[in-house]
Amino acid sequence: MVFCFSIALCVIVLSFFASDRMKSVLLSREDYFYILPDQNDSVVNANSDCKLSSFFSSPSLRSFEDWVAAPKDLWHSMSDEELMWRASMAPNVAEYPYNRTPKVAFMFLARGRLPLGPLWERFFKGHDPRLYSIYLHCSPEFTDEPTESSVFYKRKIPSKVVEWGKASMIDAERRLLANALLDFSNERFVLLSETCIPLFGFLTIYNYLISSKYSFISSFDDPRPIGRGRYNKRMWPTLSISDWRKGSQWFETQRKIAIDLISDRKYYPVFLNHCKPPCYMDEHYMATLVNKQNPEMNSNTSVTWVDWTTGGSHPKTFLRKDISETFLNRIRYDSVNCSYNGNSSSSYCFLFARKFHPSTLEPLLRITPRLFNETSLQ
Ligand SMILES: *[C@@H]1O[C@H](CO)[C@@H](O)[C@H](O)[C@H]1NC(C)=O
Ligand SMILES: *[C@@H]1O[C@H](CO)[C@@H](O)[C@H](O)[C@H]1NC(C)=O
Ligand SMILES: *[C@@H]1O[C@H](CO)[C@@H](O)[C@H](O)[C@H]1NC(C)=O
Ligand SMILES: *[C@@H]1O[C@H](CO)[C@@H](O)[C@H](O)[C@H]1NC(C)=O
Ligand SMILES: *[C@@H]1O[C@H](CO)[C@@H](O)[C@H](O)[C@H]1NC(C)=O
């Protein structure tokens, strides 16, 4: 009687033990993660081993597509430090194990509403959304959301206050790059302002950038006081005068350089401490960094046209009366000494232009559909 009882007890104890082991074997780290949400008595119940089998048919097993998919929501709670760290990760295997369609990331650095937004809407309209992505950095107090039909709908990234000419400008550019890097499909990254316009149709711009061997970060050695004169001897030995470059803030870059830009922990503090007015970080940081890190990958020129001929510290702003087909064609093909992938007889070298006043929207909307007609190009 006692013997029978002990055997029964043993069986019960063993079965508990066995099912516990069973669970720890079956519940690998990932499974465990997915069981948590519906953790339920039945899962913990020792008598319900058969229920475990339901885990194998669970629809929550992550597929490869889930791992490489673009983040569905651009809004997140990461700090800049966390974001940069996450975005700096790059695969060590060169070949993609899937059919990757490279995208161009259009990154808008704006104060608030985009006055030329309708022109950009027209620019993207009808094009395959797998070919591009849009990111908006706005003043934090700007909370308007465009309508659902807009290409800018829910494309705002968590943003901070930007002061023109200050380090916060570089921080915003790095924030845009880092957010865009979270999408593995983004291959080219172009920084645009609220006064920028496209000079060609979407496909022309897409093909130009995707097929380019080089990035388009303006970077040159300016011997004048507004160039070399802004170098500070205290930057040595991290940076020497021969490393020092000047350039336009409106860059275009490939993924590798983008990752290096957001990963930089060495040069950024040197600029922060020693590039003070009349040295402006946004005119020197990217230009010098790319010259130091990836000079052979850069064309050293910008794809964003701007008119400095009026002199002063600000380029010319174009108004409604300036806009005509002749004017736009002049800047589209204003190609003194430009080269593309080493071919110096490229017919155009600017894809974007600035600065355009909000009043230019109406004539631009009228002229560009004919001008950007892809089928009649080249
Ligand atoms: C627990 O399991 C029962 C039966 O399988 C189910 O009806 C119930 O919704 C579950 N509870 C939770 C919180 O998942
Ligand atoms: C850009 O400049 C760097 C040096 O600053 C040079 O190594 C590189 O070859 C230049 N790029 C082109 C396309 O000439
Ligand atoms: C164009 O290139 C030639 C040869 O490289 C050079 O001599 C000339 O100064 C360049 N012109 C401009 C406007 O940069
Ligand atoms: C260079 O570009 C011109 C104009 O786009 C083209 O006609 C020519 O074939 C190109 N040359 C080479 C070597 O690719
Ligand atoms: C675009 O070009 C094609 C062929 O050249 C022409 O048939 C069409 O009318 C043009 N579209 C516009 C909007 O100009």
UniProtKB/TrEMBL annotation:
The keyword Signal belongs to this UniProt entry's keyword annotation: yes
Membrane topology (UniProt): Single-pass type II membrane protein
Compartments it resides in: Membrane
Principal location class: membrane
Keywords from the named record: Glycoprotein, Glycosyltransferase, Membrane, Signal, Transferase
Pfam families the record matches: Branch
PANTHER family documented for this protein: CORE-2/I-BRANCHING BETA-1,6-N-ACETYLGLUCOSAMINYLTRANSFERASE FAMILY PROTEIN-RELATED (PTHR31042), CORE-2_I-BRANCHING BETA-1,6-N-ACETYLGLUCOSAMINYLTRANSFERASE FAMILY PROTEIN (PTHR31042:SF91)
Official protein name in the record: Core-2/I-branching beta-1,6-N-acetylglucosaminyltransferase family protein
Organism: Papaver nudicaule
